[in-house]
């Protein structure tokens, strides 16, 4: 998601006191991470609902991240931090800290020549091994049939076990916090696909 820089962008980021640093969180609660949090609705509502879980929202564009930060600043939360980076450049202090990764409506990169940019490409799955603490656990949602199928194949080929697989998430009774893209695409009539996958961590 690329957009024009909001006027308040630098101010909001420079004054944000919940940007991630090597201190992570002041407790040993589980840490979940959303890669590509966009404008932050999902990660904010997860943090509000689950005070005993820590959340890290990762977004590569400062313009978009500043919108999320502005929303989060309206609350006094101690269980959410923001990291503005391309995930592939995640700092080493994050290695082996993460319990669950959420991939919500990741860019589908429809052209075959761009397949390596998909966040569920094997190269990314290999990189996520660095981030996971005990077990590799990924939950993804998408409206895009091709990305759903590609991701399923990629997870299986990389040794993940499919724990849950729903072709129409909104027809299940799974407790679901919607993202901005999810609201937009389901209103347009797209079904929302959901995968919950796990793998032992290679040691
Ligand atoms: C299509 S948007 C979805 C936003 C949000 N998750 C939602 O569901 O509404 C994908 C977001 O992922 C971000 N993104 C894509 N690749 C990324 C990467 N390698 N590291 C961090 N963020 C990334 C994009 O900048 C964009 O904001």
Question: Residue-averaged pLDDT, rounded?
Answer: 96
| Number of helical stretches of at least 4 residues | 6
Q: Largest sheet, described in full?
A: 7 strands, mixed
Indicate the proportion of strand residues.
15-25%
Number of strands: 7
Question: Summary?
Answer:
This protein is an alpha/beta fold and 203 residues long. The chain is 28% helix and 21% strand. The protein is globular.
Q: What is the topological layout?
A:
Blueprint: H1 9-14, E1 31-35, H2 41-49, E2 54-59, H3 62-72, E3 80-84, E4 100-104, H4 122-131, E5 135-142, H5 145-157, E6 161-166, H6 180-187, E7 193-200
Parallel strand pairs: 1-2, 1-4, 2-3, 4-5
Antiparallel strand pairs: 5-7, 6-7
The structure holds S-adenosylmethionine (SAM).
S-adenosylmethionine is lined by residues 1, 35-38, 58-61, 64, 86-88, 104-107, 179-182.
Structure description:
- The chain has helices at 9-14, 41-49, 62-72, 122-131, 145-157, 180-187; strands spanning 31-35, 54-59, 80-84, 100-104, 135-142, 161-166, 193-200.
- It has 203 residues and is of the alpha/beta class.
- The protein has a seven-stranded mixed sheet, sandwiched between helices.
- Strand 1, helix 2 and strand 2 (54-59) form a beta-alpha-beta unit.
- The longest helix has 13 residues, at 145-157.
- The structure holds S-adenosylmethionine (SAM).
- S-adenosylmethionine binds at residues 1, 35-38, 58-61, 64, 86-88, 104-107, 179-182.
């Amino acid at each position: 998601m690329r957009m024009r820089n909001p006027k308040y962008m630098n101010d909001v980021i420079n004054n944000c006191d919940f940007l991630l640093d090597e201190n992570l969180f002041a407790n040993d609660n589980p840490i979940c991470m959303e890669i590509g949090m966009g404008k932050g609705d999902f990660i904010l509502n997860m943090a509000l609902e689950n005070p005993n879980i820590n959340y890290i929202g990762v977004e590569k564009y400062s313009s978009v991240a500043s919108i999320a930060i502005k929303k989060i600043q309206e609350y006094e939360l101690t269980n959410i931090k923001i990291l503005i980076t391309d995930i592939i450049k995640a700092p080493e202090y994050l290695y082996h800290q993460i319990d669950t990764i959420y991939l919500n409506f990741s860019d589908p990169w429809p052209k075959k020549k761009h397949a390596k940019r998909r966040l569920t490409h094997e190269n990314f799955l290999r990189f996520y091994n660095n981030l996971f603490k005990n077990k590799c656990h990924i939950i993804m949602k998408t409206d895009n049939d091709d990305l759903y199928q590609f991701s399923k194949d990629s997870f299986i080929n990389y040794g993940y076990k499919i724990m849950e697989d729903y072709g129409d998430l909104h027809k299940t009774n799974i407790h679901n916090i919607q993202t901005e893209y999810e609201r937009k695409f389901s209103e347009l009539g797209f079904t929302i696909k959901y995968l919950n996958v796990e793998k032992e961590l290679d040691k």
